[in-house]
Amino acid sequence: MKLVLASHNPGKLREIQAILPRRIELVPQSVLGIAEAAEPHDTFVENALAKARHASRAANLPALADDSGLCVDALGGEPGVHSAYYAGRSGEREARDARNNQRLLRELGNDRAAHYYCVMVLVRRPTDPEPLIAEGVWRGEIARVPRGANGFGYDPLFLLADGRTAAELAAAQKNRVSHRALALRRLLELLDGANRG
User: What residues act catalytically?
Assistant: First the structure.
């Protein structure tokens, strides 16, 4: 099965490719010259669907998309769907990530409970009336200082129960327990069920 991945994020691409079985060929939309879709919605699922339908239409292929973010209890779920651009849109991805992390640390007090949330969507065609939708949640809290050099986004601040941050996990470890891994594995189960049905 050949799918277009509706993302330009190299971190997401690495994680998704590492988890997908070999029978699924993943083509990043950037390779096909497809621009990123707008994400104007207030929910992860609506944004993921918009991205998947946009990529499917442009590539004339089934499309896989995720929308994910960090949700912090003390901030009412923010940055949530605004996670990638929490501290503005200017600059390259690494610079934005650093600014996002700095803003998050400035805004937090002692309540540091948080979770990563991911919605993974697969559409077979742009107008697919029955998209496959799966979610994953990864619970933790926000560290007081960033640690680790792996991962991307808020990973250096996402503190796990064992005392490590997500950025201190090896890629293979993260791909077993992360929100994206959980959502993608659930989506693959739904795909297998749909193919058998």
Answer: 67
Please name the residues in contact with 88: beta carbons below 8 A apart, sequence gap of 6 or more: 96, 99
The residue ranges of every structural domain in the chain are 2-196
Burial of 25 (C-beta count, 10 Å sphere; 0-12/13-18/19+) = exposed
The reported pTM is 0.93
Find the helix packing angle between 179-196 and 10-19, rounded to 10°. 50
pLDDT tens track for 6-63? 998 888 888 999 999 989 999 999 999 999 998 889 999 999 999 999 999 999 999 9
CATH number, domain 2-196: 3.90.950.10
Q: Is the pLDDT of residue 197 over 80?
A: no
